[in-house]
Every structure is written in structure tokens, then in C-alpha cells.
């Protein structure tokens, strides 16, 4: 546990750092009259020492001080993860634009010029304290929202699994009844057994997907060649789904490029995107269309370096009726029993690997399933 203690009392805590005792006394009286707790320090070293005992809500920091000036003190505070979020208002005698920018560039949120106007200083302090309070409230709301989403996701998946397994069990029981009634009809027996076998396979597939959720955080990460990952994915996909449709692969990463990931999970994710793409083609055509699989690297400013994997199809596209809820458990436009869990599991799995997944309609028909994986 950290030795630093945050000030979460009802009274905000302000640390005033100035080498002029008269400035400290004036600010202390003004802030205390506004029901604030005031800590004081006469130089940068005393400031750094003071925060080891209590973290203030805000620091009023003089720029010009002996030994360690305000600029260096601010830089040290910002480098410390436990104090980097404290808003710092500089008190400076510099009225030039360059002097003010220097303070803002090292992390100060505002500045006050000498001679100090106490009313202006109080107004600026109150503004920053209110912003800090809003920030804390937002963090708490985000935490609660995250907990609510996790609870909702567990409930939705549980309800969906129960519903889907019950449907599949109904299929099994129905065809078992047909077997009993048509034991002397070999063709009916073969057809019923095949359909029961298919329903059982789907039940096993659902259970395996749920096992992925449970175990994903314990699975090891390792380096794997992107080309090998693609080869293994297609081989695994064809073995698991028994589909021999055409897959055109474009690997746009450098030769022998390696990714640190869990290859088993990533292969499973891409396999779910491939089966989703193939099942988007109209079944009355009696054959699957062509699906394209492409890998590339990019580095958006808000994400950083990443591997992008895209699956392109020319199928029926995204049904408008389910577009907004496409990643909810068991949302699907397919009629087959046992569908609707793949995309939910795929997004959940890639997010646990640090990436994300989305579906994008193609302007000329079909869909792009795009996932990205962080690159270290």
C-alpha cells in the first residue's frame, strides 16, 4: 500500500509553495476563509516532502524559488504516477508569453501573475477544484458502468446459452422420437442420426466457446509468424466447419513478421469471422462465394501499433433489423438453431487480447469484418 494518502475529506486541501512568507500567509488566510485546508512549503524540496504525507487536491506553486524552482518541482510531480494528476497553478512574476508557456508545457493547468490578486486566485482555485471533482465523479461513473456491463453480459450470455441449448436438445429429442417410430425405415434412421449428430456438434461448439471465456486470461502468450497463423487458421477452419469455399489470402505484413499473442484463441476468432462470411451467402445458390482474408499493419495515434485482420465477403450484408445489436449474445438473422454466439465470443476474446472487432457494410454489397490486435 502506498504511503501517499489522498485528501478525500469534505474540505479540499491546497498546498501553497512560495519562498515569500507574506505570500504564503495571505493565500493561507484567503483559502481558509473559504473552508479549505491549507498546507504550506517554502521551496520545491519541502513541497516534495509534504506530498509524501498527504496528497493535496491542488498545488499553488511559485516559479522563482532557490535550490529547486517551480519548473523542476512540477516536472518531478508529473513524473510520479501518484502525483501526476494533481492540478498545479503556477504563481509567476513573468508576464511574457514565453514564461507562461514554459509553465504550461511542463504540466501546469493555469498561472497567476504577481502581484497576487487574492480574489482572482480564489476564483482560479475554485475552478480547478470543481474540475477535479467532476473528474472523480466521471471515474466513479465509469467504474459503475463497467460493473453493470459485466453483470449484464454474464446475464445475457447465460440466458442465451440456456435458450440455445434447450432448442438443440429439443431437436435431439424430436429426432430420437422419429427414430423410435421409424426403426424399420433405414433412410429415415440415417437422416435422423445425421441431424442428431449435427445438433450435438453445435452443442459441443457452444460449450467450447464458453470455455474460451473462462480460460482466456490464463492462456500463455507467445511469438508466432503471421503467415503461419494464417495457414493454421484456414486449416483449422476447414477441419472444424467442413467448408471448402474459396479463401483468398493477402498477407501485407513484412516477411517473417511475428506477433506476440495466443495463437489458438486468435485462430478461433478469425475462424468465427470466416464462417460468418461464408454463411452470409444465399444458400439457394448451392455454393459459397469467395471470401478474402487480409492482414496489414497500421499505427493510429489513439491506439498505437497494431495488426489489422480483415475478412471481406460479397454476401447478403448486415440485416438492418439486427445491425444495432449485432454483437449481443444470440442476435442473428440466420434461421439455423444454434447460431448467434460466434460474433459475441469473437469480440469478447479479441478484447481480452487487447484488441477489438467491428463489422462494416460494404458500399457495393457484402460486409467487412475487421479486427485489430496490439503489437508490442
First-residue to last-residue Cα separation: 30 Å
> C-alpha Rg, in Å?
31 Å
**What helical percentage do the residues reach?**
40-55%
State the secondary-structure class: alpha/beta
Strand order of the largest sheet: 2-1-3-4-5
Number of strands: 12
Could you name the CATH class of the domain at 219-376?
Alpha Beta
Q: How many alpha or pi helices?
A: 9
Please tell me about this protein's structure:
The structure is a single chain. The protein is of the alpha/beta class and 376 residues long. Among the domains are: 13-116, Rossmann fold; 219-376, Heat Shock Protein 90 (2-Layer Sandwich), CATH 3.30.565. Helices cover 47% and strands 18% of the residues. It has helices at 21-33, 44-50, 70-79, 97-105, 118-181, 186-215, 226-241, 263-278, 342-352, and strands at 13-17, 37-41, 58-62, 88-92, 110-113, 222-225, 247-251, 258-261, 291-298, 306-313, 356-361, 367-374. A 5-stranded parallel sheet has the order 2-1-3-4-5, with helices on both faces. The protein has a 5-stranded mixed sheet with strand order 7-9-10-12-11, covered by helices on one side. Strand 3 (58-62), helix 3 and strand 4 (88-92) form a beta-alpha-beta unit. The chain starts with 12 loop residues before the first strand and ends with a strand.
